[in-house]
């Protein structure tokens, strides 16, 4: 009988200035990053609305983070202002690996990434 291996919980910390969000990222679940817009029915799991003037450059549906067998992936969801990892602009809808210590930039908003 084959049993699935135990999957260790993985926590990602996203830090913007004094704000820090910690999320436990399960395997095969996608976390959406953006800004809430209740009029349009947009409710991303990570909302950057309260993060100051730079947050206005974050699209409502800006990017996603997921955990796969390849590692932690970040994907731009066709945002107007772009998603960057360590100053390199991502191509829309082409996932890239995200590592501990990377700087994620959503539009003008810079986010420090911690993975453990």
How would you sum up this structure, described in words?
- The protein is mainly β.
- The chain has a single domain, classed as Sandwich (Tumour Suppressor Smad4), CATH 2.60.200.20.
- It has a 6-stranded antiparallel beta sheet with strand order 2-1-11-10-7-8, with no helix packed on it. It has a 5-stranded mixed beta sheet with strand order 4-3-5-6-9, with no helix packed on it.
- The protein is globular.
Can you give me a brief rundown of this structure?
With 116 residues, this protein is mostly beta strands. It is built from no helices and eleven strands.
Describe the main β-sheet briefly: 6 strands, antiparallel
Which structural class is indicated by helix and strand composition?
mainly beta
Strand order of the largest sheet: 2-1-11-10-7-8
Domain count: the total is 1
Order of helices and strands: EEEEEEEEEEE
CATH architecture level-2 label: Sandwich
For this structure, what is the CATH class?
Answer: Mainly Beta
